[in-house]
Amino acid sequence: MLIPARFNGPPGSGNGGYSAGLFAHGENCEITLRMPPPLDTPLSLLDCQVRTTDGTVVAEVASEVEVDTVVPPIGYADAVEAAKGYPGFADHPFPTCYVCGPDRTDGLGIFPGRIADGSTAAPWTVPDDVAPATIWAALDCPGGWSVIGVGRPYVLGRIAVHLDRLPAPGDECVVRGALATSEGRKALVHTTLYGPDGAELARARATWIALPT
Length: 213
Description:
The protein contains four helices and ten strands. It is mostly beta strands. Strands 2-3-4-1-7-10-9-8-6-5 form a ten-stranded antiparallel β-sheet.
């Protein structure tokens, strides 16, 4: 396995969701990141661990994991309106993030804004090269932005995804995110991806970790 440099999250490391999607196998999988995923570095899966060639553990992989919480859908037009208030436009800890970085012209362009209940919503036009790892990436940042605040950056620590089906290239989808609990530096969030017809395509449960400030 290799995480190409364009799929970065924080500078110099892979986007957590995209990287986890590359590491996953099967439809119901949970990935725990043990270090920032390295870019352009050969990685292998051995004994449910993703490792570098020198044996450093990058991530742990668990299969047959249930993801049972769904963030309710909203309409595409409402998601477009929510995205106008995306806080990352004004203050973003990693503005070149492949998924939600406003400085990217070749990223996914998912800009989750908060709605009245504190959850997030974003419209998303599916790229031509959509793959399972793309869906994991799309399910990543919208959950994080339900807890990220000004001067309070978080990074992904663990994510579990249930993927029903891939959307088609060009589909106009909606991604929803919501904070479940937050304690100390850890936050549990949920995300759900909906297709153009409003049907659920995938859902995720993730733990985000606040970086020391």
